[in-house]
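the two lines:
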Amino acid sequence: MNRLAQEAVIVGLARRLNDEGSWSGETHIQKAAYLLHGLTGIPFDFEFILYKHGPFSFELRDELTSMRSDRLIDRQTQPPPYGPRIVATERGQQLEERFQKTTNRYRRQLDWIASRIGDRGVMDLERLATALWVTRRLGENAAVQERAEAVSELKPRVSVERAAEAVEEVDTLIEESRDFAST
Amino acid sequence: MGTRHFEIRDAVHNFIQLDEIERQVMDSDPFQRLRHIHQLALSYLVYPGATHRRFEHSLGVMEIAGQIYDVVTRLDKISDDVRDDLPEPGTLDHAYSRSLVRIAALCHDTGHLPFSHAAEDELLPDGWDHERITYEILRSDEMQAVWRSLRPQPDPDEIAKIALGPRKIEKLGIDLSFSAWDGILAEMVVGDSFGADRIDYLLRDSLHTGVAYGRFDHHRLIATLRVLPAVPSPGDDGGDAASREPQLGIERGGLEAAEGLLLARYFMFGQVYFHPTRLIYDQHLKDYLKASLGAGRFPTDVAGHLALTDAEITAEMRKAARDTGVPGHDPARRIIQRDHFRVVYQRRPDDTTFDVRALYEAACEKFGDGNIRYAGGPKRGGADFPVRDRDGSSVSALSLSHVLNELPVSHNQYIFAAPELRKEAKGWLDRERERVMEAAIATQVEDETNTATQGGNDTNDEVKT
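prediction for all of em together
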């Protein structure tokens, strides 16, 4: 996927998250991109590390800034205490249309992730994305409890019980995402 | 920990204090080398006063990092929702963390190549940059001897985490994880919002260039820094502040000082760091170094790195400028005689990053690679950070500050041409601009269409985590 096509897909992601009623702040885009990449294999060219609120990519942060500079996305201020939403601009949607072959190719994956995480808060997404991170490291066959303890160790603010819920949800998402591997 | 204290006079901070251990670090070869690395590369050709070095900047970063640490760990400044993340004042952990932060601040630039950032990207082997060299220096025999004299003895990786920060640790592929406290310590030194590195370089570069825009009320800024829970988001049902990961933020009363810092940065980007003449000298320097260095690359071993400074490069460059037979003669001559390439295109408000790159590539094709250069700054916007509002809650800075919200992303991108082609290249770019941009986008769309038609799904088998 070339750079412009990747930007078109990110615009599509931001637009769908907004359509699903998501807050779509930067953290939402970050987690959605990580889950999309990790679960459906959309070939985003970003490295993720375990950082604030779970897996995080500085490359994606720079890309979002660049896209804002190019007026493909914009920040929409919100009343305190919340941070801004990221919204697709008209110019961004024009780019999406020009790359419709690409965006159509990933349409199902984008719709799916937006429907699954659109209404979730940042803390929820932190648990979910960290659970996927751990699952990728320990393997899908590792016991839920083992993975939950690993999540809680990495994120001490997350209890083992909440981590176990997140791990189980990740297992469900992995199951659902097998659909995309065959398309 | 050291007991004797030393004082050094400094142009920005008046006095910088250091203890015996910090003095040992300062006296080491890697640190003393920084006396010969210009902070702003060849910017002194544009701003004659910009001859300051990484040496005094690094001392300044240590001074500010220590001040930040002392403020945010004061008992009366720590709120209950983050107390468990911070070491208790008066304990060994607290003193150790303070020492780590100051040493990391001192060492954060030791891996810089001659002339700082100017020529880094193409002059090191793949996978190397100045942060990687810093990492190697921190683990070198000479520095290990210094670390051994610290009690408790630090792991160089702990210093590296703070000196380089998570962004660089990610880029280098070093397998180190960051606890919430590690992340905060790194923010104190190299953080995007309030890092001591940024505070010192803006103040120092402003002073030495004579560009007043870089000044801001750093005393007020530092005095109001706090460790705060991250900004909340809707949907965080049932999540209280204590369950949100903490980060460096600011008291409501310091918000104007934070705005001042980010405005200063924005202005300094346009006026100094991405001044077009400075940028083209960086390009000429890179051309010279590619031609003159063995295999076109700087050494990456610690001994080889420590042996090269701006002084050695400048001496060789002056010789090359006089002798047509020496590799790199032409770019050396352009620098020494100030016969640099000229701006023929500057990014317009309606352009995108892709557009300017496309124009540059088309100009290279038309006028020849040797006659056209491109330079542009990275686009870094201001990240959001938490503000402790007057009711004690942690609030998004962007939800409170119109200034931060309206601050544009810097985009300084330029195309340059050899002086003799200036008029012709400028005219051609003006005439062909629309056609070139449209053709470039059409090519990208076509490439993607072909990918879709040929293989369908180009998803990655390998997931990068």
